Amino acid sequence: MAQFDLEKEVRDLAARRDINAAVQNYMRGLDRLDRDLLRSAFHDDAFVDAGLSAGPPDPYCDFCIEVLSGFGASHHLLGQVRIEMTGADTASGECYFQAWHEAKDEDGSPRDLFISGRYIDEYARRNGEWRIAKRRLITDWVTDDPANHDFFAQPGIHRGARRGEDFSQMRDWPI
């Protein structure tokens, strides 16, 4: 019977927590159009391949902000996140996602663009920080349908916002 190693178990749990934080910062940065938060998910020498853009993290983050700025809103949702520790300072992962984008037809009619897929990742701990070292976006399915966003015109509806104007960032409670 193997001896239980509490210190190793705690290191593993802390690594998984920190890797998940990087993955979540990436998604939140996309939706809030927060480039700094998005960029914080990657090591400086990371390689990111989303198909339409591949290379270092800085041009990739600029690309993401530019593309997503063209949509009225977006909502990225993480599904299962599988992390496999491959060494003391390395790990591999696969993160499922679904992403909704508020798009428009050429005539201005609203559309709902859904993209679903997975991120295949390599993570590394450097200077005590776990971040993404390599990432490839795999698209599994897409649907682009006419939309009706009249719901948002109702009084009292709290709609998400971007660029620091979302309630989750301002938290401007009335009392």
How many strands appear in the DSSP assignment?
A: 6
Q: Roughly what percent helix?
A: 25-40%
Q: What integer value in Å does the Rg equal? A: 19 Å
User: Which fold does the CATH topology refer to?
Assistant: Nuclear Transport Factor 2, Chain: A
Strand content: 35-45%
Largest sheet: 6 strands, mixed
Q: Structural class from helices and strands?
A: alpha+beta
Q: Identify low-pLDDT runs.
A: none
Strands side by side in the biggest sheet: 2-1-6-5-4-3
Q: What is the terminal-to-terminal distance?
A: 58 Å
The appropriate CATH architecture is: Roll
Arithmetic mean pLDDT: 94
CATH domain class name: Alpha Beta
What count of structural domains? 1
Which word captures the global form?
A: globular
Total DSSP helices: 4
Q: What is the H-and-E element order? A: HHEEHEEEEH
Give an account of the 3D structure.
The protein is α+β, with helices and mostly antiparallel strands. The chain has one domain (6-169): Nuclear Transport Factor 2, Chain: A (Roll), CATH 3.10.450. The chain has four helices and six strands. 19% of the residues are buried. The model has no long low-confidence stretch (mean pLDDT 94).
